[in-house]
Amino acid sequence: MSLTFKTLGRGRRVAAGSLIAVTALTLSACQNGTDSASKSSSAAAPATSSANGAPSAGGSAQSAGNGARPSGVAKPSAGSAGVPNASKANPSGMTDPDRCTAANMSLHMGRTDIGAGNIRVPLVFTNKGKKACSLRGFPGVSLIQRDGSSVGTPASREGGAGGSVRLQPGQSAHAVLHTVNEGVSDIPCWKNSQIVFVYPPGSKESMTTGSSGLRVCGGTFTVTTVESGVPS
Q: Do 29 and 141 reside in the same domain of the chain?
């Protein structure tokens, strides 16, 4: 009986020892796994921040807070608010090979039409080339001074886009500039302009002509799409 009791007691002690060892190994593995996961998360954090555009170490956060311009963002040029950008002025303008360009056209202001508080002036494009060309869409138009400084903001679009206008050599098309008389609105008038700065529809090259002192009032300055001919 005594021998059997001692053998069983020893077996229980061995089993208990084994259970303790297994538990210790399990706890160690869990702890190591937690540490590894924590280290992996810490290592991955900078990459995630960088991908999201957050400042990296080394003072970038302070630079961003001081209004630093992100890389790849162009610095606005002086007076750009009042002059249309060539790439944005005529997104609906035609890009056909036979499109009329600034190089093969002349530009001038037509006769001013004043009535019922409105002022409308045709902006006339004439094909001065030796072959036919086409125009379609809105020109980009702004008013400037002789020193190049802008007057107000570029003309907004008025009316529908219209169709294509085919110009034989010597033929003309026009778009209409529109503003209102002083006193029609409480919005102050702009100062008098001296030059009309124009991107023909679809063109990245500009043209200019005298504005005849055109003065925009009432905050109204629009341009229509090009139409065939010249108003009488």
A: no
Can you tell me the distance from the alpha carbon of 214 to that of 143, in angstroms, rounded to the nearest whole number? 8
Model-wide pTM > 0.85: no
Q: Is the dihedral of CA 224, 228, 229, 232 positive or negative?
A: negative
- The whole domain housing 120 covers 82-228
pLDDT tens digits, 7-62: 444 444 444 444 444 444 444 444 444 444 444 444 444 333 333 333 333 333 33
Helix (H, G, I), strand (E, B) or coil at 96: coil
> What span, in angstroms and rounded, lies between the C-alpha atoms of 1 and 20?
29
Run of H or E residues at 109: strand 105-109
In a domain, 75, yes or no: no
- Bridge partners, 132 (sequence order): none
